Amino acid sequence: MIIAISGLSGCGNTTVSGLVAARLGLKKINYTFHDLAREKGVPFEELHARAEREFPALDLELDKKLVQLAVGDCVIGSRLPVWLVDADLRVWLSAPPRTRAKRIAARESKEPDVKGVKARDAADMTRYKKLYGINLKRHMDVCDLEINTERVTAEKVAEIIAAAARQAPFEKKKNKWPRKIKKIIEEKTKLVG
């Protein structure tokens, strides 16, 4: 079983995907721009800015790695896995920008920056739309479950997702995106790389 958990920064993807994986005894895959920044030895903010300047190279690198890692039974958490992989259960996590800004600030030991979170969301959404045609406001129909994490603990969110996963097998929604995105990644990687 593959469980894909997506959401914007600060929604709890990393924490929740780890908790769900532990509850279900599955491998956890959570590869983000933070991981890519560490691998490249640059600060996250610098890599995120480069993602816009060097578009689409870094997005393709990240997404290609996520697709490669998502094999076998696993929980994959990041921005786009509900569109990237042919998952058995696709979950979208959401929370208001103010809540997400507070979480990011706590994680990164800095002051909450709601404007910065909104700017990052806008930049990310622009890149997703430009590269894959994904409109986060219109293409949510692939998700089986949407959870607002603002007032729910990560443990409770994980419990809800694990309970949904235990209900399998269930009718799988058609998802055209993984095949489409894999083709885009292959074509554009040849052009960029």
Write the layout of secondary structure elements.
Elements: E1 2-7, H1 13-24, E2 27-29, H2 33-40, H3 44-53, H4 57-69, E3 74-78, H5 81-84, E4 89-94, H6 97-108, H7 114-132, E5 145-148, H8 154-166, H9 177-192
Parallel strand pairs: 1-3, 1-4, 2-3, 4-5
List keywords for this structure.
globular, alpha/beta, 193 residues, 55% helix, 5-stranded parallel beta sheet, Rossmann fold
Folded structure, characterized:
This protein is of the alpha/beta class and 193 residues long. The chain has a single domain, classed as Rossmann fold (3-Layer(aba) Sandwich), CATH 3.40.50. It is 55% helix and 12% strand. The protein contains nine helices and five strands; from the N terminus they run E-H-E-H-H-H-E-H-E-H-H-E-H-H. The chain has a five-stranded parallel sheet with strand order 2-3-1-4-5, covered by helices on one side. Helix 1 crosses helix 8 and helix 4 packs across helix 9.
What is CATH's topology name?
Answer: Rossmann fold
The total beta strand count reads 5
**In percent, how helical is the residue content?**
55-70%
Largest sheet: 5 strands, parallel
CATH 2nd-level architecture: 3-Layer(aba) Sandwich
Kindly give the count of domains: 1
Low-pLDDT stretches: none
Q: Distance between termini?
A: 32 Å
Q: Mean pLDDT, rounded to whole units?
A: 92
Radius of gyration from the alpha-carbon trace, in angstroms: 16 Å
| Secondary structural class | alpha/beta
CATH top level class name:
Alpha Beta
What is the name of the CATH superfamily?
P-loop containing nucleotide triphosphate hydrolases
What is the succession of H and E elements?
Answer: EHEHHHEHEHHEHH
Determine the strand fraction and express it as a percent band.
5-15%
